[in-house]
């Protein structure tokens, strides 16, 4: 999948846009808060005016009670023959306005809310960093401010074959716009052309958590930093009613290598808003070995599915192994479905840490921690005394690849071509937990389903 066409506005019919059908342009009676005021030249209906205009989060104040709603407007950055930025054009269906002058500080605000046109004029490709069946991921450099970004490039032709791909992209853009948190990747904008949709994201140079932790055994204080960061991002998502449904090492990236307090959640392709009807675009989805059992059991589920996945990650960090070990995907799903997890005897993890882990991994969602409860647990409230990279030892591990259930696509490929599926070794016998209380809770919950039921249904699981 390549960046095939120069995405020029004259070659794109905005009435055929997948991303916007919004026609509301001029509005009044807006609760407006100004971010910036500039003296600019405005061209509307071939009439040129010089005037002070203000920009807010979603509106431009044109006059006292006349505003331009630029949410889902089409944005074109205007340049002269020397390719210097001289202004912008905003358009919705029949309405269009051009603004000229010192407007560079407006561009970032506009891009987050608009659908941008003419990608090639505004970015240079640096390198391909990830590849999948629905999208490619590139590192690019902005011609606007010189900063590096990450882009996800989707070809529109695949939408005719699978409507769910198109809808998942729309969800991803919608939710990334809503989310603003230090531990969630920053959404910078989206471009559309006749053939492609390109999502612009913050470039996270530190790599994913899997590559950062390879051959490393980290201490409890580093685990606390990682858990606080991830749960902080998830708490904000859950407050907005959004779940991620694919929390795992490869969907957690660092702004700076080995800097665990710079962690960010990425890949919102399976994110949706939780609802009481249990009606989702992807109902039966996730990564084998990281999924909450209620998803695999096709039960009604909610926001706490993310907390179980965080628990799987916490287990991996504490014990340097996967809780559901096998050399086959089927067996991993069966074990994940049943949810029986062995808690090894160890002196490296405190009793408080084990208690925290048990709260994350409860099979019954009613008993399982919420994000806020997990953040308030005494394990994460204890003072962290070690410096960032202290108490790190190296441990040689064999890497065995786990094949995806259905197919390999962008949801299963992380940047830098690292497989997103977790390595597992053969481990058939399910062991009893060292905690009798935890073991009882797990075993009581596994009586409602059978192994044969899961084996008949696992191939339908969506791993996008």
TrEMBL record:
Keyword Transmembrane helix: no
Molecular-function annotations in GO: ATP binding; protein serine/threonine kinase activity
Residues that bind ATP: 152
Assigned keywords, A-Z: ATP-binding, Kinase, Nucleotide-binding, Serine/threonine-protein kinase, Transferase
GO cellular component: nucleus
Record-annotated membrane-spanning stretches: none
PROSITE patterns: PROTEIN_KINASE_ATP (PS00107), PROTEIN_KINASE_DOM (PS50011), PROTEIN_KINASE_ST (PS00108)
Protein kinase domain residues: 123-380
The keyword Ribonucleoprotein is annotated on this UniProt entry: no
A Pfam family of this chain: Pkinase
Family stated for the protein in its record: Belongs to the protein kinase superfamily.
Name of the protein this chain belongs to: Protein kinase domain-containing protein
Organism in which the protein naturally occurs: Paramecium sonneborni
């Amino acid at each position: 999948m390549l960046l095939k066409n120069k995405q020029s506005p004259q070659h794109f019919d905005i009435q055929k846009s997948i991303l916007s059908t919004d026609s509301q342009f001029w509005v009044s009676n807006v609760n407006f808060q100004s971010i910036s005021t500039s003296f600019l030249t405005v061209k509307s209906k071939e009439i040129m005016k010089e005037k002070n205009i203000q920009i807010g989060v979603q509106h431009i104040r044109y006059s006292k009670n006349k505003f331009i709603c630029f949410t889902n407007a089409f944005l074109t950055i205007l340049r002269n023959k020397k390719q210097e930025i001289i202004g912008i054009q905003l358009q919705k269906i029949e309405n269009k306005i051009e603004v000229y002058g010192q407007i560079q500080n407006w561009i970032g605000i506009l891009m987050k809310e608009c659908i941008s046109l003419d990608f090639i004029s505004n970015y240079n490709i640096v390198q391909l960093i990830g590849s999948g069946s629905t999208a490619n991921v590139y590192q690019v450099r902005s011609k606007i401010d010189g900063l590096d970004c990450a882009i996800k490039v989707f070809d529109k032709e695949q939408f005719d074959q699978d409507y769910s791909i198109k809808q998942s992209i729309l969800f991803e853009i919608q939710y990334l716009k809503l989310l603003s948190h230090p531990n969630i990747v920053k959404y910078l904008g989206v471009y559309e052309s006749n053939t492609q949709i390109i999502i612009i994201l913050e470039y996270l140079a530190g790599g994913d958590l899997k590559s950062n932790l390879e051959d490393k055994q980290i201490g409890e204080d580093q685990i606390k930093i990682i858990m606080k960061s991830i749960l902080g991002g998830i708490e904000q998502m859950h407050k907005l009613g959004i779940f991620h449904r694919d929390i795992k090492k490869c969907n957690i990236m660092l702004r700076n290598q080995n800097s665990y307090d710079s962690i960010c959640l990425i890949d919102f392709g399976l994110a949706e808003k939780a609802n009481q009807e249990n009606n989702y675009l992807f109902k039966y989805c996730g990564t084998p070995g990281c999924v909450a059992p209620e998803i695999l059991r096709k039960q009604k589920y909610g926001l706490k599915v993310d907390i179980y996945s965080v628990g799987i990650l916490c287990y991996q960090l504490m014990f340097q192994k996967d809780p559901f070990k096998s050399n086959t995907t089927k067996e991993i799903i069966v074990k994940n479905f049943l949810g029986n997890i062995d808690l090894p005897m160890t002196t490296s993890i405190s009793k408080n840490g084990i208690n925290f882990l048990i709260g994350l991994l409860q099979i019954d969602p009613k008993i399982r921690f919420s994000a806020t409860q997990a953040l308030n647990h005494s394990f994460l409230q204890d003072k962290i005394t070690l410096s960032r990279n202290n108490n790190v030892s190296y441990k040689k591990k064999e890497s065995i690849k786990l094949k995806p259930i259905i197919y390999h696509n962008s949801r299963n490929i992380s940047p830098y071509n690292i497989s997103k599926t977790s390595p597992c070794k053969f481990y058939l016998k399910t062991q009893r937990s060292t905690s009798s209380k935890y073991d009882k809770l797990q075993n009581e919950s596994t009586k409602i389903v059978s192994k044969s039921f899961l084996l008949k249904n696992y191939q339908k699981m969506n791993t996008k």
